[in-house]
Amino acid sequence: MGFKSVRVPGSSANLGPGFDTLALAVPLFLTAKAYQADSFEVELHGEGSSETVVGNHLIHQLVIEVLGHDRVGLIIDSEIPLARGLGSSAAVTLGVAAALGHPDPLGVALDFESHPENVAASYYGGGVAALVASSGPVIRRIAVDPLLRLVVIIPPDRLTTEAARRLLPKTVSFGDAVFNLSRAALLAVSLGHVEDLVPELFEDQLHQEARAAAFPESRQLLAMLLEAGCLGASWSGAGTICVGFTDVDGVERVHQRVEEAMDSSGLGYGVRSLAVDLEGLITLGEK
């Protein structure tokens, strides 16, 4: 296996009703470069640069899994906020496996991640639907209109996937299950045509309200995005980031309205406008 330098996009999962199934790749990137070293070395830059990579850290576990030893150096630079719902864990898992030269970085990352949609979106780019069946992961790419744009509100508050999942109910009603199934199915076939998107397609009754117990401001953020003119709005993954969906013609106007609403609310959270990344994992160089 030859060492590489790679770039991996982040991802936004669930999109409201598509819990643990739907995801889009987003152009906030993590780069990872591996090189020969006499002992384990890691340089972290950007988001997560204050993390300490010790023996039980995900990155070290990946190195041992892929190489069987830890005599390697890694330089990782990330634009993806940690524990905010943009797939930072999936991106670093995929990026490190690829940088170490594993022939199947997607397979390695799927073994480490408990659900496949973030990893699949970061690997392929664009949109995906994914599940884990008894026979293994099943992943299908879904069409995404190149005119689709995301307006992302980025709070400073972190919420890990594990903590967010502890808030979810053990069972859900038949009606709530049907509510989400119908919207997830329609959303998956509508993402390819931005003019087909309407707010009802992003509605959820399985997870977002339960998770709002840990981040009550999410209710205000989702309302803010819809009032600004978004075609729909949802939590991004396990949060705390909330994302609004619009088109290329409306994104500047929506972004401005969200920033104005943010200023008047006193929350002061960051706002970014993003396209959907269509490239996925790419190799920047090889040794």
From TrEMBL:
Residues 194-262 form the GHMP kinase C-terminal domain. Pfam families: GHMP_kinases_C, GHMP_kinases_N. One of its GO terms (biological process) is threonine biosynthetic process. GO terms for cellular component: cytoplasm. It comes from the Bacteria. It is found in: Cytoplasm. GO terms for molecular function: ATP binding; homoserine kinase activity. Its main location: cytoplasm. Keywords: Amino-acid biosynthesis, ATP-binding, Cytoplasm, Kinase, Nucleotide-binding, Threonine biosynthesis, Transferase. InterPro entries: GHMP_kinase_C_dom (IPR013750), GHMP_kinase_C_sf (IPR036554), GHMP_kinase_N_dom (IPR006204), GHMP_knse_ATP-bd_CS (IPR006203), Homoserine_kinase (IPR000870), Ribosomal_Su5_D2-typ_SF (IPR020568), Ribsml_uS5_D2-typ_fold_subgr (IPR014721). Signal peptide: none annotated. Its EC number is 2.7.1.39. Pathway: Amino-acid biosynthesis; L-threonine biosynthesis; L-threonine from L-aspartate: step 4/5. ATP binds at P81, L82, A83, R84, G85, L86, G87, S88, S89, A90, A91. PANTHER family: HOMOSERINE KINASE (PTHR20861:SF1), HOMOSERINE/4-DIPHOSPHOCYTIDYL-2-C-METHYL-D-ERYTHRITOL KINASE (PTHR20861). HAMAP family: Homoser_kinase (MF_00384). Catalyzes the ATP-dependent phosphorylation of L-homoserine to L-homoserine phosphate. This is Homoserine kinase. It comes from Ferrimicrobium acidiphilum DSM 19497. The lineage of its organism: Bacteria, Bacillati, Actinomycetota, Acidimicrobiia, Acidimicrobiales.
